[in-house]
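Team,

Forwarding the record for the chain on the shared tracking sheet. I've put the sequence and predicted structure together so nobody has to dig through attachments.
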Amino acid sequence: MAHARRRFDEALTVLKKDFTKEELKETTAYQALARIRMLYKIEEMIRDKSPEERYKERQKQARPLLEAFFEWLHKPEDSVDRSSMIGEAVLYALNQEVYLKRYLEDGRLNIDNLAAERALKNFATGRRNWLFAKSIRGAQASATVYSITETAMLNGKKPYNYLTYVMERMKDLGPFPEKGAMLELLPWSASLPADCHSKLKK
């Protein structure tokens, strides 16, 4: 949703050069942003609720708004200039409709993937440090460890303590551990020891 919002915002920025404030309010870009803003406002209000509560609130508040948003977008679909910025914004949203609605079906999902992108930012910033992994397997191993580390941090765990605990437990579990034993090692498992948990707010 953040990518869809950005495209409408870019289209609106271009229009600001030639439109008055009142004229801007009548544009597709402005109205699309207003509708998306309401969806984000709902997410802000239910941020601290449980996944089950978020799901219920989204069904009650967000679903009708999102359905109306796409119904509204389909109207100018055939008449919009596909090469224009607003045309690209409308078509992007329509092409991603299934995926932009996905968060409604699961209270654990976010309205956008900005958290994942922020987690990747440090890795992307320091990519030059990882240019020389010596082998494909080495690069894959680094990517796996980084993914586990970021997931642990997002779940409020101390990366070093968590990884140390996981590796010690894996050593005891042997080469073919049972699924249940593996589930207990995941970053969101309630059975992780206290020293794995960070005091910092997630």
